[in-house]
Amino acid sequence: MESSQDLKSLRDTVHSALVTVTRSVNALANEDLQFQRTVHPSVATRLDQNTERILRLARGVLKSASNFTSQREPQLEDVDDVEIQWKGVVDVIDSLLEKSDTCLDEYTGLVKRKDAPTAELGRELKRSRSTTSRLDWSMKRANILKPQNAFERKIDNFDSGPWKPLMTSKPHARVPLETSLDTFVDEEGRTQYKHPYEQEITNMQYPEQVYRSCEPIKYLPMETTKAIWVDTYEGVLEMLQELKQATEIAVDLEHHDFRTYAGLLSLMQISTREKDWIVDTLVPWRHKLEVLNEVFADPKIVKVLHGAFMDVIWLQRDLGLYIVGLFDTFYASDTLGYAGKSLAFLLKKFADFDADKKYQLADWRIRPLPEEMFYYARSDTHFLLYIYDMLRNELAELASQNNPDGNPIDRVIQKSKEVSLQRYEHPVCDPETGAGNRGWYNTLIKSPTLYNGEQFAVYKAVHKWRDDVARQEDESPFFIMTQQVLSDIARIIPTDMKALWSLLESNARGLKGRLEELFQVIQEARARGVNGPTMLQFFRELSSGASQTSLGVRKVAAAAAEDSEPLSIEELKCDRSQLWGDVALNSSLDGTSKARPIREEDMIPLYTFDFGAIKEELPETNQPSPRRVAEQDTKGLPVLEEEGFTLKAGRKRKSRDVDVESASEAEAVSDIEMGGDSSAGKDHPKSPSVEQEVEGGDDKAAKQAKKQAKKAAREEFKRAQLLAEQLAQNGDIKGAKELKAQARKALRAAKKAQKQQQQQQQQTSASAATSAADEQTSGEQEEGHDDDAEQEPFDYSKASSVLHAAQATNGDDGDDDGGRKEVRGKFAPFDPYGMKSGDAPQGARKMNHVKGGRTATFKK
Predict the structure, then answer these.
(1) Contact 403, 294 (CB under 8 A)
(2) Are 237 and 230 in contact (CB under 8 A)?
């Protein structure tokens, strides 16, 4: 480009072309192309031609972009590959867009052009970001020949027996080597060799200077000293002679585990007060480094390491070295309560040295070792003995203050001994239960994905296949196949080799020769998993056991594979709380409470009614119920019933629900059968003389007519109801509703007529009773009875019923209905003081009446 104007015109042209293409694509997406392809064969041919042309153009664009961005080119052979390889297409396009943005920013001057990378290597050399990233990546994942292929002692990754220590001699031994190499059975039921220096480490007494506060010996400046590179056996022997003269040495290790199955101890740094040594542990004769046990196992020499948890294991596994007299500065900083416990923190605190930890995960197999990595490795031990002096003095000062937790130095030494007593064991991977440090159990127990039977079987099979291939080729399982790829294969279960190939990442392309083998493993596992347990069922069975170890779950897993039925609630219950342990749920029940124990008489029984038993106990008779007897017995004294009351449902609201209407109809029929009102059978008791007068005045013909009217109304209602059901079954819902409405209207009219007739009879009875009572009162006054002395007690049996008060109609004064008055066609709530005098207590008047609308708080 010669000017910004040319760039603007090109940008406008590209933008216009992209807009046109996008509109065309959106228009095509709205068309039913599959229908057109089926109806018009010519359209199908044109579509296939255009599809092939677009794929060819896309392959060309992706090829050019992948070459420019150093990305892997996705292969698009057909339309299905677009979806399968979509992730690779997006990666190429994103990389291309990022490079375009960078170029545009450099052209417009928004950022400065990046400097060209230089070939010089130096610790203080400043590099561009891109150069540093490429250097870091090459240091972490160097493509070099495997040094383990040249070892004189080959690595056996398929050794399933107990790992035997590599020692051929035992310097500074209290117990002979033959006696030390004894076996035992661990908690998981496996046979293991004991620690060769177990007795020596346990009974060791550290030198006296470890417990005393001494003047710290200042480290020598790194610029004035030089580290010695040791890669010959003669150099090892020379270093050993100087190490024997020291009282303290500092040791550190560098490890690599990406291109090997078990791991490789790649470098060992040893420092005294005067010298630093960098020992190459990848030499073919590395097993001869066992001679360093003359120093490492010497109890008179203190070995200072920081975070030696894994260092002790690596020394045993690769070199046959054991540390006796370890002082771990990590536990010293932890005991002193430092804010940071890393080696970088201690280097900055005591030596004012900024450790560059970007090489901590570098590939330490690189030979010759770059200068930067050499400097980093040396710095880890060069200052460590001075740090040991400072920590030891602080611990001794803390011990002189009568610490209640004991001597702090003793705690650090005890922790260091525990680290030294660790033993290396073979990597374990149980394919069925997933147990072991190389198993899948710990990974799946934390995974949010739940696999079904087929997916779970495929996951286990592919995991075992990956582990076998890694052992055979002496590679890390994650180098063979990453965890993400393994999860994708189990989740998707590819149905052909092409789909399987698309799931593999770039670092798994080495499996091309094993692709058919892997696909066969997937298909066989999928067939086995049809009737196998799901992932959830497996973990349910595994957690149902009371106690199990990492390898002691084989039987549970086998049971889960045989029985894939879901667990019942009873099987999931646990007698012991996982949160509270053996603590009882109620201390008053198990006798541990200090309060008075619960007695049987303090407990409140919960009554239950067995209606079936009650029905069996009651004899079946044809006699009427007591309630019916009370209603029919109008001669003699009134019968008092001892039974609980039943709340009567209020008036039904208008509803379109058919069930509610049916309930209203049933209630109306029952009301007619009971005499037109539910209170008809509960008339107020009357005196015998009055009842006789009313009974004597009734007309038998009127009663017979009334009975026939009731019967006719019931039959008419039932007939209408049957017709309505038939209409509803035939689909005429509207006609059924109209017929029911007419039946209900007729019922209401009959009920109203019966109520009016009943009220007339009640008024007649009331007037007769009033006249009889007046005559009786006048007779008593004439006889001269003293009301104050011989006043009769109130007879509750003759009082008007409050619960079953008769409802007043429009125009009634409401004096004989218990105080209930009709207000606008609806009865007002019952007033208990309605029939009392004006001196009766009145209800309190409502205060602080709340008005509707907003309160004053929200007024503007």
Answers:
(1) no
(2) no
User: What's the gap between Cα 95 and its chain centre?
Assistant: 37
**Residue the block writes with tokens 């046990």:** 293
Please report, for the chain, the start and end positions of each structural domain, with discontinuous segments joined by +: 31-108, 207-420, 441-572, 661-765+802-809
Question: How far is the C-alpha of 763 from the C-alpha of 681, rounded, in Å?
Answer: 17
> Residue 328: helix, strand or coil by DSSP?
strand
Q: Which of 93-107, 623-637, 735-749 is predicted with the least confidence, judged by mean pLDDT?
A: 623-637
Which homologous superfamily is 441-572 in?
HRDC domain (1.10.150.80)
Burial class (CB in 10 A: 0-12, 13-18, 19+), 492: middle
**How many angstroms separate the CA atoms of 571 and 567, rounded?**
6
Distance from C-alpha of 356 to C-alpha of 339, rounded to nearest angstrom? 20
Q: What is the CATH number of domain 207-420?
A: 3.30.420.10
Q: What is the DSSP string of 701-767?
A: HHHHHHHHHHHHHHHHHHHHHHHHHHHHHTT-HHHHHHHHHHHHHHHHHHHHHHHHHHHHHHHHHHH
Phi, then psi, of 229 in degrees rounded to 5? -85, 125
Kind and range of the H or E run holding 269? strand 264-271
Share of the chain above pLDDT 90, in %: 35
List pLDDT tens digits, range 389-435.
999 999 998 887 766 667 899 999 999 999 999 999 999 888 889 98
How far apart, in whole angstroms, are the C-alpha atoms of residue 229 and residue 34?
A: 72
CB of 295 closer than 8 Å to CB of 332 = no
Same fold, 207-420 and 441-572: no
| Class of residue 510 by CB neighbours under 10 A (exposed 0-12, middle 13-18, buried 19+) | middle
Mean residue pLDDT across the chain: 75
Are the C-beta atoms of residues 369 and 230 closer than 8 Å to each other?
Answer: no
Which stretches within 325-482 are classed as H helix? Answer: 329-336, 343-346, 371-382, 384-399, 408-420, 441-444, 453-473, 477-480
Comparing CA positions, the residue from 279, 359, 363 lying closest to residue 319 is 279
- What H or E segment, with its residue span, contains residue 266? strand 264-271
pLDDT digits (tens, 9 = 90+) for 135-184: 444 455 667 889 999 999 999 998 888 999 999 999 999 999 999 999 99
* Token code pair at residue 663: 């309930």
Q: How far apart are CA 214 and CA 585, in angstroms?
A: 58
Confidence check: pLDDT of 86 > 80: no
